[in-house]
Fold Glutamate decarboxylase 1b.
Amino acid sequence: VEISTYFSTSLCLIRCVSAAPHPHHPDAHKNHFTLLCCPPPPFPSAHCFPPHPPPWSPYLSFSHSQTTTHRDPCSSFYMHLIRSDARGTRFFWTLLPFYTESCSASLKCDRVIDRFTYEIAPVFVLMEQLTLKKMREMIGWPAGEGDGLFSPGGAISNMYSVMIARYKYFPEVKTKGMSAAPRLVLFTSEHSHYSIKKAGAALGFGTDNVILLSTDERGRVIPADLEAKILDVKQKGYVPLFVNATAGSTVYGAFDPINEIADICEKYNLWLHVDGAWGGGLLMSRKHRHKLNGVERANSVTWNPHKMMGVPLQCSAILVREKGILAGCNSMCAGYLFQPDKQYDVTYDTGDKAIQCGRHVDIFKFWLMWKAKGTIGFEQHIDKCLDLSQYLYNKINNREGFQMVFDGPQHTNVCFWYIPPSLRGMSDSEERREKLHRVAPKIKAMMMESGTTMVGYQPQGNKVNFFRMVVSNAAVTQSDIDFLVDEIERLGQDL
Ligand SMILES: Cc1ncc(COP(=O)(O)O)c(C=O)c1O
C-alpha cells in the first residue's frame, strides 16, 4: 500500500493506493481510498483563516473512490479496512500505526504533525477537540463541556490530574513552588496503578504523602477507610487534596464505588479523579457502563483508548470538568508560538495546555477507528471481551486444579491459581505457599519456551503469584480460551 499525503492548512487529504495487485483481484491497484478532513472555519469570514474555507460540510468525512472496472471486489478490499468484522478490523488495526506514521514520514516534516498551534495542524486540533467532547459527553458532563488533552499514556494523564488539582487549590505553586503550599496529601487505593505514587514523587509531594486506601476482597476501595484517613491527616495538620478512584484496576479489574467516594470528596472539598485508563472503555457499552456510575461527579478522568478499546499505542486522554484549568495550570505563553494577536481565534492553539511542546498525533488513529467502527462497534468489542472473560471464569471456576482469586470478574481480568496435582492434597502451610508461588512463573516460562502463548502473573498483597488473564482483543475466540486452559494443565501437571 502506498500512501500519499497532502496537507495544507485547511485540508488533509490522504490517498491510499495499492501499488501491488491484490492477490485475488489483480485490478485492485487502481483503487484508492481517500480520506478528506476539512476543518470548519471557527472565525468570522472577514478575517478568515484559512483564507478560503472549502465549501464542504463542517465535519470531518470519509470518501472512497475507485477507478477500476471491477467494482465489487475492489471496493470491498479497501472497505475491509474500516469494517468491524474480526478479520477486517485486525487488518485495519495492524495497518493504522503504519498509516499514521507514514503520514509523518512522507511529509518529511515532523512539525506538521505536532499540534501546538491551529495554524500548524488544524485538522488534528479539530479532530482532538471533537473527540474529547464526545468522550466528555459519554462521561456525562453536560453538553460535553470541559477540557482535555491526549497525553502520552495513562501514567501521564494521571499526573496531569494531580497537577491540576494542586493548581485548583494552590495556584501559587505554579510560580512559587511547593514551599507556597502546606503539606498536601493524595489518597489512592492499595490496588491502584503505581503512577499515582510516581506523580506524587515527580511533582514534589513525596511518596510518604500518597496514602494507600484499604480495599475489600474484590479490590474495591472501602469508603469508610478513606474518610478515616482524611480525618487522620487533618488531625495531623496536613491538607488532604486529591482522591483517585480507579475504574478498572490493573490486576483485579476492580471498580471503586465512585458515588460513595464522591460524597466524601464533596464533604471535605477534595479533588476527585477517576483513573479509567483500563476501565474507561466500558463507557461505550450500555451493558457495562453502570460499573462507572458516578463518574460524572469526577473533576477529572483518565481514559486510555489504547487499552480496552484496542487503539494502537499511544492513545490516552485526560478529561477535565472545569474549562480553562489546564491552560491556567500549564500555559507559559511562549511568544514565538502562542502570539495572542494572530488573525484567528487563538483558543484553538491548544498546545500550551500540555506539559510537552510538540506532541505526537495520537488522535488520528482513534478518530479513524471511531468513524470506522462507530460507538456500536466499540460496544460490541467491549461486550465480546467481557463475555469471553466470563466464559473463562465459568470454565475454570470449580474445575479441578484451579482456584479463583475472587468471585466473578468485574472487568476482563480473571485471576486464578493453577494448583498442580502434587500440591492438591497438601494443607495450607508456608511450604505450600512457597511452592505455589513458583508455579505461575514456571508455567509462563514453559509457555514462552514452547512459543505457544503468554499470560501474566503477579503476587498481590499477601497472595502468592497467581495468573491474571485479560482479554482486550475482540478477535480472541472461545477456542483460544480453551487452548489456554489446556496449555496450563499440560505444562503444569508435573510440577
Ligand atoms: C489502572 C491503570 N492506570 C494507569 C495505567 C498506566 O497507563 P499507561 O501504560 O498508558 O501509562 C495503567 C496501565 O496498566 C492502569 O492499569
About this structure: The domain at 122-361 is CATH 3.40.640.10 (Aspartate Aminotransferase; domain 2). Residues 153-155, 158, 193, 195, 246, 249-250, 275, 277-278, 304, 316 surround pyridoxal-5'-phosphate (CB under 6 Å). The mean pLDDT is 82.
